[in-house]
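Ticket opened by: R.M.
Priority: normal
Category: complex prediction / small molecule

The reporter submitted a protein together with zinc ion and asked that the result be attached to this ticket for the collaborator who will pick it up next week. Submitted input follows.
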Amino acid sequence: MYKIEHVGIAVKNLADSLPLYEKLLASECYKLERVESEGVITAFFRAGESKIELLESADPDGVIAKYISQRGEGLHHIAFEVADIKAEMARLKEAGFRLLRDEPSRGADNKWVCFIHPKSAGGVLVELCQEREME
Ligand code: ZN
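Result attached by the on-call engineer:
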């Protein structure tokens, strides 16, 4: 795997969190995007070579809303950039990791993504992401 592409942070609402992270990172949010497949609205910031992704639930029963009701706002996942997501998924499956989906799905920020269940990854929700070719 390559670098940490981004760190995902669950927030209750972007309206409150955007100014906080703009102040913290001394950087402007450069992209707001709704991801239908995950039921989230995302906001991206650059932090050096990596990014910070804020995630707000797009609906009250979404996975981010559930996460926040159980654990509060905060760190949600770590995303690693990979060159070949399908090969990496096969390698991890072979090694005993539990993938949340069998095929890569369309994630935010023009990526193919796949998540690894935290129960098989030491309590950390891990995301693999690969830059999507322009279509
Ligand atoms: Zn992410």
